């Protein structure tokens, strides 16, 4: 089986060594930088038509082992899949998104281990795209800059009420309260995030300003009580079918004249057809169950139809690639410690997911858009300044 | 007929005087600021179910005369139409957009009279939304700032090749050549714009850098010869059916790594259903024949599907309201001169169109979006700076 594959594999001239179950090693190109150890001979059949999903799954399940820099591993996996993989054109099927399913999906990912996330996230545990104002910042600086960029876009003023939908460990909630003097309600479906989030609020003495709750976005009253609403890395979990409901919910929770910021990952194609052989399947199976990425114009349509007016959109695609580079490198530098915190299988998933998503953002398979919208007053007026210059002072 | 209408009209308590054909005057509310002179008794039937289209048409055709501040006229017309008009929910039918139809439609509006446009546009004759950085600028300042804002967003560098699709009288082309050192090809379908545009290029000695041509966007070669493409106030004329073609055209004329800016008027609703009783019909009939406004997400979808990546969107809705206030006030201050330049019927059309569109932008019936997109390199990289801070230095 392998023998019949070797001409095609060698034709790609990849810097890859195959380490076989019987001790033999085959170099597919000069100066291999990556070694793929095949523990299970049955995997060889998959190599005839590889995909990032097949390769990733084999690694997660221990049928393959990897040695070499992870970004190089991903690049080689992509080249293999593009050269030999089957064409995929079908968009994924819609996912179920009732409250129980969503709670379970969120728990699967975010309740993994607070200590594990602390190992490679920034000091404020901001688990979303950083903002590199010049490209020279470190991770802590980029995450603080991102929090400030969001607060500035929301034009937060002391005393305002901010809702943070999908608040994670509360990094943005605490930053907004501390630096901009607002009152924040943050909600999450992750018990682990809530626990550590509340501890950090208490440690900063912000209990009077920041309230964190375990709550589904559908359970919030639609009474326009918030001046501003922010949602970071959240609409990816909502599902295409629920996006209109989700946007109406945000729109009806903000007062007229208020602002809503949606920051999240968007798909490359409007119809959801995949980019990157099998990358999406791997993410859906192992990383973000029930996750669905809408295209910018799909989430934009739902925002518009909810009565909000889109006023500012910014792509931060390459910022997310760089953020994931930082996360991946920090995890790779702490693998021994990580093994003490999470099962080997989870570690394998997170390793390829972080390096793979960096690659996916860099290669324009997925994007990151910050979409700012206002809810205009009845007469069409709003409360935004004439220009965006205030964001850059 | 009128007697039976009066209770309903009086119930609105509008500051409106009806001056009848027989010399009688009826005040519908206290302290009338506007007088509507009914020259033709048959118009009274229309007042039972008024719309901005019916009222505007009656004024254009001389069956009504108006006296009073135009912004107040429009406000009263809107209140009448909302209170007594029929509900409209149907989206307008698609318009024809072959090359001959488009050329005729453009000529109808833009070939009206260069001298007339010079009467109320800024000194550079920029016939699109100005950019009020602080809200205190005059019209000339706002248009110069808009040209600079566009050039900055396009990150123009000396020696680059810029295509200006729908170049008007060449204000942007000359500005970009003079201030940013680029070479510009500008195309228009208006012979009058071309004539005066070329004179102004010559007067500034920019013939070596700026070339203006009478050309349809469909006739440009798709050879990626331009570093940057800009289109201002153009996609409103393209038509919904041709938007995908139009975007593919722009996408294929720009080199990989280049930028495309689409600046234009967008509709309130995605399905095109009207806002403002009959305002759209009036514009289509008298002002911009065959004009069609896409929603932001519709033009955004076409841009995305053409292979471009949307990186920056900015709404300038209230900037356009203010721009139109300036234009309308300047025209109102020069009515005698205007009457010497264009027929009375055209003057009536332009008077209510300018004041009416100011009202429409202010009340969120229509919007203005600047949509910047890049054509990424094969490997997903692009040439934009990390942040938008350079736009505000």
UniProtKB/TrEMBL annotation, chains A, B:
* Pfam families from the UniProt entry: CMAS, DUF7884
* Domain of life where this protein originates: Bacteria
Occurrences of domain DUF7884 (ranges): 13-75
Which terms in the Gene Ontology molecular function aspect does this entry carry?
methyltransferase activity
- Write out the entry's keywords from A to Z: Lipid metabolism, Methyltransferase, S-adenosyl-L-methionine, Transferase
Member of which family? Belongs to the CFA/CMAS family.
Return the protein name: Methyltransferase domain-containing protein
């Amino acid at each position: 089986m392998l023998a019949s594959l070797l001409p095609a594999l060698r034709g790609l001239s990849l810097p890859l060594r195959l380490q076989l179950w019987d001790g033999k090693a085959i170099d597919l190109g000069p100066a291999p930088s990556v070694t793929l150890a095949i523990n299970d001979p049955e995997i060889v059949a998959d190599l005839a038509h590889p995909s990032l999903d097949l390769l990733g799954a084999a690694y997660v399940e221990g049928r393959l082992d990897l040695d070499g820099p992870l970004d190089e591993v991903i690049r080689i996996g992509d080249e293999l899949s593009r050269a030999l993989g089957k064409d995929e054109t079908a968009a994924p099927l819609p996912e179920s998104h009732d409250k129980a399913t969503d709670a379970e999906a969120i728990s699967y990912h975010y309740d993994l281990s607070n200590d594990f996330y602390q190992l490679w996230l920034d000091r404020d545990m901001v688990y979303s795209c950083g903002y590199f104002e010049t490209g020279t910042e470190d991770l802590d600086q980029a995450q603080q800059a991102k929090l400030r960029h969001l607060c500035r876009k929301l034009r937060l003023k002391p005393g305002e009420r901010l809702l943070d939908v999908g608040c994670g460990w509360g990094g943005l909630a605490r930053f907004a309260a501390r630096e901009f003097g607002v009152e924040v309600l943050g909600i999450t479906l992750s018990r682990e995030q809530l626990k550590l989030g509340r501890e950090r609020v208490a440690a900063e003495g912000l209990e009077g300003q920041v309230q964190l709750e375990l709550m589904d976005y559908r359970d919030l009253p639609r009474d326009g009580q918030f001046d501003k609403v922010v949602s970071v890395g959240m609409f990816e979990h909502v599902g295409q079918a629920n996006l209109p409901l989700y946007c109406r919910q945000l729109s009806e929770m903000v007062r007229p004249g208020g602002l809503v910021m949606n920051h999240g990952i968007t798909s490359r194609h409007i119809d959801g057809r995949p980019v990157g052989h099998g990358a999406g399947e791997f993410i859906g199976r192992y990383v973000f169950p029930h996750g669905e990425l809408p295209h910018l114009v799909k989430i934009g349509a739902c925002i518009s139809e909810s009565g909000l007016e889109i006023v500012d959109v910014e792509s931060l695609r390459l910022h997310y690639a760089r953020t994931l580079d930082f996360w991946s490198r920090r995890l790779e530098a702490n693998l021994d410690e990580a093994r003490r915190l999470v099962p080997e299988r989870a570690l394998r998933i997170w390793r390829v997911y972080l390096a793979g998503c960096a690659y996916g953002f860099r290669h324009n398979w997925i994007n990151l858009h910050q979409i700012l919208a206002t809810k205009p007053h009845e007469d069409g007026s709003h409360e935004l300044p004439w220009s965006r210059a205030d964001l850059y002072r």
